């Protein structure tokens, strides 16, 4: 569910250039600091670079604002967020030097319920994520060449190979993960040093914050993603597949 159009000859050439750039940067920036990585992205792409944030915390948004004040921070309002998540988004927009861009699905929750039946997230979570996350992000990133995310290698086995800069084949964009090499301790230290906003749920037993119907608290020793789609084989929403 990408809704991407066939490429023209010029677009094909541009895509090849971006792909090569991403692969080269991934090698050259592997040992760079997170700030150096986002600085490279900001210098390389300018206004065609954005940050995405689930508003679990504002660490990557803060990093990017240091490299490019006023940077676009893209937030997916799925209609199922915890109130604390919406509050974090509003606080980030109010106090940080960023431009928060809120994306919404084509259908409201009520319209989706009418079309697919209520609680699609329980019956077909992959479809629900595709409709409320994957498609809106793909459409919302159309005006950018590169996007940054807060993925970390230590979050789960499925994210262990995350490059600091790579190629997003699904969206034909350069994808940047400036804190890919960080641990949770690194995140905590950055938050403490810079007073970065975090979602209040992180101090209430939640290690990873997503949509309310599909997120629960985690037990001690579980990885950060264990509270997402608990009891299902599903571990990712599809944004990073």
> Which percent range fits the helix content?
25-40%
Instruction: Note the run of SSEs as H and E.
Output: HHEHEHEHHHEEEH
Can you count the helices? 8
Global geometry: globular
Quaternary organisation of the protein chains? single chain
Q: How far is the N terminus from the C terminus? A: 12 Å
The whole-number mean of residue pLDDT values reads 91
The value of Rg in angstroms is 17 Å
Side by side, the strands of the main sheet go: 3-2-1-4-6-5
Low-pLDDT runs: none
Largest sheet: 6 strands, mixed
Structural class, judged by helices and strands?
A: alpha/beta
Relative strand content: 5-15%
Report the count of strand segments: 6
In short:
The protein has eight helices and six strands.
Explain this structure to me?
With 241 residues, this protein is α/β, with parallel strands linked by helices. 39% of the residues lie in helices and 11% in strands. The chain contains eight helices and six strands; from the N terminus they run H-H-E-H-E-H-E-H-H-H-E-E-E-H.
Question: What is the secondary structure topology, with strand pairs?
Answer:
Blueprint: H1 9-28, H2 34-45, E1 49-52, H3 59-67, E2 71-76, H4 83-95, E3 98-103, H5 109-116, H6 120-123, H7 125-140, E4 146-148, E5 165-168, E6 173-176, H8 184-194
Parallel strand pairs: 1-2, 1-4, 2-3, 4-6
Antiparallel strand pairs: 5-6
Helix pairs in contact: 2-3
Entry keywords:
11% strand, 241 residues, six-stranded mixed β-sheet, 39% helix, globular, alpha/beta, single chain
